[in-house]
Specification:
Layout lengths: L3 H8 L4 H15 L5 H16 L9 H7 L8 H20 L24 H12 L10 H15 L3 H5 L6 E2 L4 E4 L8 E4 L2 H14 L20 H14 L15 H16 L4 H12 L4 H14 L4 H7 L11
Antiparallel strand pairs: 1-2, 2-3
Helix pairs in contact: 2-3, 3-5, 6-7, 6-10, 7-9, 7-11, 11-12, 11-13, 12-13
Length: about 325
């Protein structure tokens, strides 16, 4: 959390509204909430109030309604996030005895997006294409990075940010374990790797990371820092093309994140075909993937049924209530 003086400078003013905003963020951070995004949102809100000539001793209805207007190119998900973040702050102000307009008519828009689930043969082709990415003098180690990165995303079901944030000390080659820190929801977890993936990590370190310090990025850019997720997109699209997998365009996929979805679906498929009890297995998958609760994990049941329709009857038999027909992704 930045200091008070810097916060007020970024807000453009200091009074009861900005002071309560700073206190609100400190309180959230104290209970373990990651506040970088909320802070950015709230600073933008404060600057908007200042620029529009809104009263700065309370949060007016006009200020909140102006903030809640959807931008032309804004996604429903981002709009909902913006509106709910400000609503939480308004509720905080209200409890503190400050006049604040709380918009209670914010509706979550259900996304119609359906993840792309790679077939097993597509995964094989994808990895082969990553192994054969052409050399580029701008990023000479790119083929090593992408070859392992895509395998790790699929093999461990990681979020792209979790993989790119890894440092050398987070990859335990002796135990075959990844230490995932400061992940989504502020959670941390240990992620065991398969023997084959652990061996590939060992090869990667031998080739490009032998003398790196513990705090150095595991997937390191030519400049020595961490890759940004957007930087991976060009190599990802190039890999899809070389693997003969059509790319539908921005927002349509297949996305890098679909490797995580595919991991979950293939894992469930394997368990169903082996006759495992999904009621007992789902909590393990949920913990392994770092989900906040079972609801997120259960959504993969529908995707598994759609990708492998021949196992639907087995899923219904091995799961008390088949949520794939009730849960929207």
């Amino acid at each position: 959390m930045i200091g008070q003086v810097e916060f007020y400078e970024k807000a453009g003013f200091q009074n009861i509204l900005s002071e309560r905003c700073y206190e609100y963020l400190v309180e959230k951070e104290t209970i373990g909430v990651q506040i970088q995004k909320p802070m950015g949102m709230l600073l933008r809100f404060l600057r908007m109030c200042l620029a529009n000539g809104e009263p700065l001793d309370h949060a007016s209805k006009s200020a909140v309604e102006c903030w809640n207007e959807k931008d032309i190119n804004e996604t429903p998900r981002n709009h909902y996030y913006r509106a709910t973040e400000i609503r939480r702050f308004m509720q905080y102000l209200e409890k503190a005895g400050i006049d604040a307009y709380v918009d209670r008519d914010i509706r979550r828009v259900q996304s119609s997006f359906v993840p792309y689930i790679f077939s097993h043969s597509e995964i094989v082709r994808l990895f082969a294409a990553a192994d054969g990415l052409p050399y580029t003098p701008i990023s000479p180690q790119r083929v090593y990075v992408m070859s392992l990165l895509f395998r790790m995303l699929y093999g461990c079901g990681l979020r792209i940010s979790e993989a790119l944030n890894l440092v050398m000390a987070d990859v335990d080659l002796d135990q075959g374990i990844l230490y995932i820190r400061n992940s989504k929801f502020g959670k941390e977890r240990l992620v065991p790797m398969s023997e084959s993936l652990t061996f590939r990590c060992f090869q990667y370190v031998s080739n490009v990371g032998k003398h790196r310090k513990d705090e150095a990025a595991f997937f390191q850019t030519p400049c020595g820092g961490h890759y940004a997720s957007g930087t991976i997109l060009y190599a990802w699209r190039q890999t899809l093309y070389c693997a003969g997998i059509s790319y539908g365009g921005k927002g349509k996929g297949p996305r890098v994140h679909d490797l995580r979805h595919t991991f979950a679906v293939h894992c469930l498929q394997k368990w169903v075909e082996a006759g495992e009890d999904l009621n007992a297995k789902l909590p393990y998958l949920s913990a392994y993937m770092g989900h906040a609760g079972l609801y997120s994990t259960q959504q993969y049941l529908r995707l598994t049924a759609e990708a492998f329709p021949h196992i639907v009857s087995a899923m219904e038999h091995n799961f008390d209530v088949f949520p794939g027909r009730q849960v929207e992704l």
